[in-house]
């Protein structure tokens, strides 16, 4: 195994760990008491998430200082200097658009997390693979093949079974399982927009992943600076959805954090884990594609489910296990980790490789050798495993033979 492939797997593993820690910290805050009340502040938590993403700007400046990037090497240029598109003109600020999707999706998901068990919340997020597949076809114009459709079918069955288990059996930590499931599914359509738009922009804009996450965090926090005061003024009397008679009560959130060192510690850990989770996630998208990222995002479900049962947040349910098996199987088939050796599914994988290679050649035929390591890669972009640099069309044949 090459050194750079090991680095990529390290990023994937880090994404798994930080993502697991983030969900657990978020749910632990929801179930914690301070000043005689539950910490019920999903919108405040989402604002904290964006603040955590903003930390990546500081990580980037540290990285730039340590590696001593020169202005020429600094990855702020686009791959289409002759005729600039709207995306190229916006440069790194195109990530304001993924931030809007993230703003909508994350807000809904944190509300769903408050209403649902953490494992159900995480498993229902597996619906993201279906949404990303749909958006890849409609917006990114990426063709799907037979084995991918099979994976989507398995994943859909898994999501249905997990949702059914949540509705029928509930959990100790679920306030409103049915509403929670509905909100989480709706959120996935916005989350899919994050993955698809990031992949689209990373194909066309040369930008370091730390910059991408930091700009998304800055934009999302800006959205919430506008929205939080509004939410603090809208009356609401549903105890499961609101706090202190309003949709959000940010002043009370600060008071509860100040009065409880456990919640304060969880909130800090929550922000740090989300910053590192998003950094490793964007890096994974850049080097392996949006579907690789969504695969890892789904895989952390098992760790969250095990922790939830261990601490008594929920019980073991066979129907949920069956749904999880379907979900994971679908994800593995879709991403070609598991190959079905009949009905032409293996041939479908080979056809997809040829298609993605041709697509990568068309998109990156004019790439210069002196470009920095962190380049915008499409999921099928052909690049040298030892330097993360794209190969020319003639070198591609040699690369295929080596692999």
UniProtKB/TrEMBL annotation:
InterPro entries attached to this UniProt entry: EmrE-like, Nuc_sug_transpt
Membrane topology classification: Multi-pass membrane protein
Top-level taxonomy: Eukaryota, Sar, Alveolata, Ciliophora, Postciliodesmatophora
SUPFAM superfamilies hit by this protein: Multidrug resistance efflux transporter EmrE (SSF103481)
Pfam family, one: Nuc_sug_transp
One GO cellular component term: Golgi membrane
Compartments where located: Membrane
Name of the molecule in the record: EamA domain-containing protein
GO molecular function: pyrimidine nucleotide-sugar transmembrane transporter activity
Transmembrane parts of this sequence: 7-24, 44-63, 92-117, 123-142, 149-171, 177-196, 257-277, 316-334
Keyword field: Membrane, Transmembrane, Transmembrane helix
């Amino acid at each position: 195994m090459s050194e750079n492939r090991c680095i990529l797997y390290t990023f994937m593993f880090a994404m798994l760990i930080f993502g697991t820690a983030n969900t657990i910290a978020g749910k632990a805050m929801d179930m914690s008491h301070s000043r005689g009340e539950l910490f019920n502040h999903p919108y405040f938590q989402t604002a904290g998430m964006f603040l955590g993403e903003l930390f990546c700007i500081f990580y980037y400046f540290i990285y730039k200082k340590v590696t001593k990037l020169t202005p020429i090497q600094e990855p702020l240029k686009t791959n289409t200097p002759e005729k600039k598109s709207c995306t190229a003109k916006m440069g790194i600020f195109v990530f304001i658009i993924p931030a809007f999707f993230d703003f909508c999706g994350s807000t809904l998901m944190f509300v769903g997390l408050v209403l649902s068990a953490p494992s159900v919340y995480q498993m229902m997020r597996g619906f993201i693979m279906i949404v990303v597949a749909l958006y890849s076809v409609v917006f990114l114009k990426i063709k799907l093949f037979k084995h991918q459709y099979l994976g989507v079918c398995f994943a859909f069955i898994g999501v249905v079974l997990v949702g059914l288990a949540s509705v029928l059996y509930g959990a100790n930590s679920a306030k409103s399982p049915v509403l929670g499931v509905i909100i989480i599914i709706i959120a996935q359509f916005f989350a899919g927009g994050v993955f698809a738009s990031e992949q689209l922009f990373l194909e066309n804009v040369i930008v370091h992943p730390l910059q991408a996450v930091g700009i998304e965090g800055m934009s999302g926090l800006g959205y919430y600076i506008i929205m939080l005061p509004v939410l603090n003024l809208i009356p609401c009397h549903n105890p499961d959805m609101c706090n202190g008679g309003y949709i959000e009560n940010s002043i009370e959130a600060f008071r509860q954090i100040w009065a409880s060192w456990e919640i304060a510690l969880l909130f800090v850990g929550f922000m740090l884990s989300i910053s590192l989770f998003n950094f490793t996630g964007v890096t994974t998208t850049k080097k392996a594609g949006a579907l690789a990222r969504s695969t890892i995002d789904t895989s952390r479900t098992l760790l969250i489910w095990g922790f939830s049962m261990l601490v008594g947040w929920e019980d073991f349910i066979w129907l949920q296990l069956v749904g999880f098996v379907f979900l994971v199987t679908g994800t593995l088939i879709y991403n070609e980790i598991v190959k079905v050796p009949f009905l032409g599914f293996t041939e479908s994988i080979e056809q997809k490789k040829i298609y993605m290679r041709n697509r990568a050649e068309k998109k990156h035929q004019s790439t210069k050798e002196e470009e920095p390591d962190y380049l915008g890669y499409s999921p099928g972009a052909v690049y040298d495993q030892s330097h993360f640099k794209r190969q020319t069309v003639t070198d591609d044949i040699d690369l295929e033979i080596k692999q």
